[in-house]
TrEMBL record:
InterPro entries with a match to the protein in the record: Mss51-like_C (IPR046824), Mss51_Znf (IPR032717)
Pfam families: MSS51_C (PF20179), zf-Mss51 (PF13824)
Mitochondrial splicing suppressor 51 zinc-finger domain ranges (all copies): 98-153
Coiled coil feature spans: none
First and last residue of the signal peptide: none
Full protein name: Mitochondrial splicing suppressor
Domain of life: Eukaryota
Domain Mitochondrial splicing suppressor 51-like C-terminal stretches: 235-486
Length: 519
């Protein structure tokens, strides 16, 4: 499976390097993401403030002390009251170089001067900042937004946008999955009343709602808008027949007999596996008659956050008695079960079978299929010379090859996300064997300069290149996170989690009678 050093946004390097050699343009702090950093130190529960007792499984700690008021959210990173943000500024000062010094003066100087407007270290000195002020104005408002968002999350206020999330969707009420706005309205989110609140909530909900938007018959991907292919219509019709009752069915006619769980496999899971368990309830709440088993599979899969008393009893079972690998199961509700499997997918594929295209689906969030496999690099020489005519192997050819082959054989849908247009195009080119994209002239690269990206089409991958059919065309994901993530090596580079999405399925071969063929 994909190494942690190459995962987008939420991934950190496995080993210290002289420069950040990462897959994604954001070198995350020790925890999966800025917000998840708060989650994993358990301050997430404190963000919610007081909450009324309910009959549900989850409880929240009392309201914390407010550290920053809403009119005091902007702080230069070096003077931030929060250690995580001060460390973010230090990493940028260590890895990033001044764009003005490098591009106009041909000097390699670290960024030591913090822009007074956005609070990020962006230039070598005030003089260079003034010289490049016009160019910096393009990214400055975005950096200011990120600065205030990160301080707001840690301010200690009641994050009311996370409170009172909708429960089970009534059968007679339809949910609209065209945009975040229509989803929040038709699902009854009452606290999403600002763009900042939208960014905070979308950062967490992008994972379950992206899955929901693909599975739901009212989702944004249809044959009419060109996103679902003819083969995709067949795959989605099979899924819809399980998740949705037939048209015209009344509440009295619904079959209430127990159903086999609908299984969602999240490959290469890491940060998404440590989200609060009730975040994933938003998926099952929209399909109340269908039980869900969600599998987080990957070498760095974690344990979902639950209430404190239960958290003490949750840990990975190291004996591997059930799945043959370390695992942890959380029974959130009778309709939702979360299973973490801490192992590469190929280690558990056989245990999870048999597979059914009607009730099984696979997702990989920003897998980096077209990104060079960093596990093949020499730690003592992270920027090796590539011989003429050769180019580095990408992960679709190495760590993802066996996984792709196994999943395509199941004929189940396999969906990928990407963090930017370039990332999406690079992953698609790796599978289709087409020319990979390049950065536009004069624009900052989404990857560190020491990463040697392929510049030629990837050769056909055995068992993959000729064995899949496109079911969801590559394009934007309406349920991408609306929160920007800033790269440590260049503050001009910013991406969004799950920006794009596309999907494939194993090729199906029609059986033809020999006599009919001769005729």
């Amino acid at each position: 499976m994909r190494p942690a050093s190459s995962r987008v946004l939420l991934r950190t390097a496995r080993r210290p390097l002289s420069v950040p050699l990462l897959r994604a343009p954001v070198a995350a702090p020790p925890s999966p993401a800025p917000l998840l950093a708060a989650l994993q130190t358990r301050s997430f529960f404190g963000l919610f403030g007081k909450k009324k007792k309910t009959s549900g499984q989850f409880e929240f700690v009392p309201e914390p002390t407010v550290i920053l008021e809403q009119d005091d959210l902007f702080h230069p990173l070096s003077k931030s009251p929060f250690k995580e943000l001060r460390e973010k500024g230090e990493r940028i000062s260590t890895y990033a170089i001044c764009p003005v010094s490098y591009e106009k003066h041909h000097e390699t100087k670290a960024v030591k001067y913090e822009c007074p407007d956005c609070g990020f270290p962006t230039h070598a000195s005030r003089e260079r900042w003034e010289e490049g002020h016009e160019e910096h104005a393009e990214s400055c408002p975005r950096l200011r937004e990120v600065n205030e968002d990160e301080h707001d999350l840690r301010s200690g206020r009641r994050v009311v946008e996370y409170e009172n999330m909708p429960s089970i969707q009534p059968y007679e009420q339809a949910v609209n999955l065209q945009t975040w706005d229509t989803f929040f309205f038709t699902r009854g989110f009452v606290s999403i009343n600002s763009q900042r609140a939208m960014r905070h909530v979308s950062k967490l909900l992008t994972y379950p709602i992206t899955v929901m938007s693909v599975l739901h018959q009212n989702g944004p991907f249809t044959a009419g808008n060109g996103r679902i292919t003819s083969e995709g219509r067949r795959s989605m019709a099979a899924i819809h027949s399980i998740l949705h009752p037939p048209p015209g069915t009344s509440t009295e006619d619904i079959d209430i007999r127990p159903m086999a769980p609908f299984r969602v496999f999240l490959l290469g899971a890491r940060g998404e596996s440590t989200l609060p368990a009730d975040i994933w309830l938003q998926l099952s709440n929209v399909f109340p008659r269908t039980p869900f088993n969600i599998y987080f599979i990957g070498p760095e899969a974690g344990i979902p956050l639950v209430k404190g008393s239960q958290r003490q009893h949750l840990k990975m079972s190291e004996d591997g008695s059930k799945y043959g690998v370390p695992s942890c199961t959380v029974n959130v509700t009778p309709q939702l079960r979360l299973i973490s499997l801490k192992a590469p997918y190929e280690a558990v594929h056989n245990q999870l079978g048999p597979f059914d295209p009607y009730q099984d689906v696979f997702f990989a969030f920003s897998p980096g299929l077209g990104f060079p496999d960093q596990s093949l690099l020499d730690p003592n020489n992270p920027t090796p010379d590539v011989k003429d005519g050769e180019q580095p192997l990408v992960q679709a050819q190495t760590s993802w090859k066996s996984t792709l082959q196994s999943i395509l054989e199941t004929k189940c849908g396999l969906f990928f996300t990407a963090f930017s247009p370039t990332d999406l195009a690079r992953d698609v080119s790796a599978i289709f064997g087409t020319q990979p994209p390049t950065s536009a002239p004069g624009q900052p690269s989404e990857y560190p300069s020491n990463v040697q990206l392929p510049t030629k089409p990837i050769p056909p991958i055995e068992g993959v290149s000729d064995e899949f059919e496109l079911i969801l065309t590559p394009g934007t994901n309406p349920f991408a996170s609306r929160k920007w993530e800033i790269a440590d090596w260049d503050t001009r580079v910013a991406v969004k989690t799950n920006w794009g999405i596309w999907g494939i399925r194993g090729k199906k071969y029609e059986v033809v009678d020999a006599e009919d063929e001769r005729a």
